[in-house]
Amino acid sequence: ALKSVPAAPAPVAEEARAILKRLGVPDSVFAPSGRPALSPISGETVAHVRETTPEEAKAAIARADAAFKVWRRIPAPKRGEFVRLIGEELRAAKDDLGRLVTLEAGKVTSEGLGEVQEMIDICDFAVGLSRQLYGLTIATERADHRMMETWHPLGVCGVISAFNFPVAVWSWNAALAFVCGDSVVWKPSEKTLLTALATKAIVERAAKRFGGVPEGLLEVLLGGREIGEILVDDHRVPVVSATGSTAMGRQVGPKLAARFARAILELGGNNAAIVAPSADLDLALRGIAFAAMGTAGQRCTTLRRLFVHESVYDRLVPRLKKVYSSVTIGDPRREGVLVGPLIDKAAFDGMERALDEARAAGGVVHGGGRYTDGECANGFYARPALVEMPEQKGPVLRETFAPILYVMRYTDFEDVIAQHNAVGAGLSSSIFTLDMREAETFISAVGSDCGIANVNIGPSGAEIGGAFGGEKETGGGREAGSDAWKAYMRRATNTINYGRTLPLAQGVKFDV
Ligand code: UN1
Q: Where are the transmembrane segments (predicted)?
């Protein structure tokens, strides 16, 4: 029976259109013949967005290339001032943009707002970075010489982003690219055009306040894969940062390699956690629940595989099952809802297929299936599934972008590390243990092979201060914090002779 719930929130399309207006998205971007922008909350069409034609895409890249040639001459701390203003505009727009993320991507309210906070955080980081694009001074082997490295702007930076972090992923790339002196051409997911348009309007406000931002510093290409391909194939784009599936990366990576462009790839994850005998089980339970069910299992960093030591399995897994069966699913705008809709039918069908395969492989499925209560009838809401597997095989070995957690028992620590690493992807990982030998081994050279390895927190929800990305089929790229900025610049090594002779390196003699 339905619990007594407050009146249904406002119709999705109306609310989204009001936000777009408030955020300053012009009517000219919409056209009846355009691509429908849907909300996964209700399946409603919010608007029809005019798509970018191939000719327009090429013209946009040309404008971005011209903008780069102006922008690279602006001192980096001044470029940082522009990003500071973007951060200010994002602060002012946080409620609206966060809500639009909820409406368009289906994230629950706090996660929609959290996504915008992530944008603000990376802007702050980039502002500081704009005064710290340091190169080294290096000891030379020659007398009266100096050797140093200089970091220069690189060019047009292509950004291809996915529906699940429709605006934060753009910001990790764009905030760095802008302070590094690059222009940006952004191809957002065709499933999240509205948040992209809103972001563009916010950046334009910052540009107006800054004054002197060259036209074309941020271009947005709206459309499907063909439009993305134009960006990937264009020789004026020396670096492309692409977030999405490993299948997408397999297309994009070789194309970029063929023209010697730089690729920053952030692809699939098949992230695991190990629960060791000494684990704090209360803490592990919360960590696992958020990492596995948060964002309805649609994060690259979502927890998908759980290895539980046999000595704690019967204490942890029944509690986990309880959490799974009682988690609140529903309209992500409602207070208390933790699991919103999947992005579309294809995502739901993929989940069902994986669960069938898991059953065929001997798995016992708890939960799963479509949730259609009340106002959820028109979206693709799924009950999160916890699947007890006899071993790691079948669908456990790949990423299904949905809330499925495969649970397995383990006995031996070395063996579980081997199993942990025995999948294609290498994005994020974690261990719950109070044993410092296990914890340190897990994050050591012989432990997790992932780009992110955590202790006593789940694999998802990384802060922007660290470099974000992973190894193997995750693509090897790093975005956001630490020294990820270096991928957006080119490095020149400079050797200066301030003497009167010409000593050659390696002791070579060449007297003419
Ligand atoms: C993604 O799913 O593409 O670590 C990125 C996290 C977020 C980013 C996820 N900060 O879960």
A: none
pTM score: 0.96
Mutate to test the pocket of ligand 1, among 191, 266, 301, 450 (most ligand atoms within 8 A of CB): 301
CA 91 to chain centre: 20
Q: Tell me, what amino acid is at 484? A: A
Distance CA 65, CA 71 (A): 10
Let me know: does 427 contact 301? Beta carbons within 8 Å: yes
d(CA 462, ligand 1 centre) in Å: 6
Six-digit token string for 316: 């942890």
Q: Known catalytic residue: 266? A: yes
Residue 85 tokens, joined: 């203003």
Which residues, judged by CB distance below 6 Å to any ligand atom, belong to the binding site of ligand 1?
A: 164-165, 169, 243, 299-301, 460-462
Q: Would strands 364-367 and 385-388 be described as parallel, antiparallel, or unpaired?
A: antiparallel
> β-pairing, 145-153 with 137-138?
antiparallel
**If you measure from the C-alpha of residue 434 to the centroid of ligand 1, how many angstroms do you get, rounded to a whole number?**
26
Q: Provide DSSP, 281-303.
A: HHHHHHHHHHHHHGGGG-STT-E
ipTM above 0.85, yes or no: yes
Specify the DSSP class assigned to residue 145.
E
Please check whether residue 427 is in contact with residue 474, taking contact to mean a CB–CB distance below 8 angstroms.
yes
Mutate which of 299, 428, 452, 468 to test ligand 1's pocket (most atoms within 8 Å of Cβ)?
299
Which pLDDT tens digit goes with each residue over 420-450?
A: 999 999 999 999 999 999 999 999 999 999 9
Per-residue b/e over 28-49, b at no fewer than 16 CB within 10 Å? ebbeeebbebbbbbbebebbbb
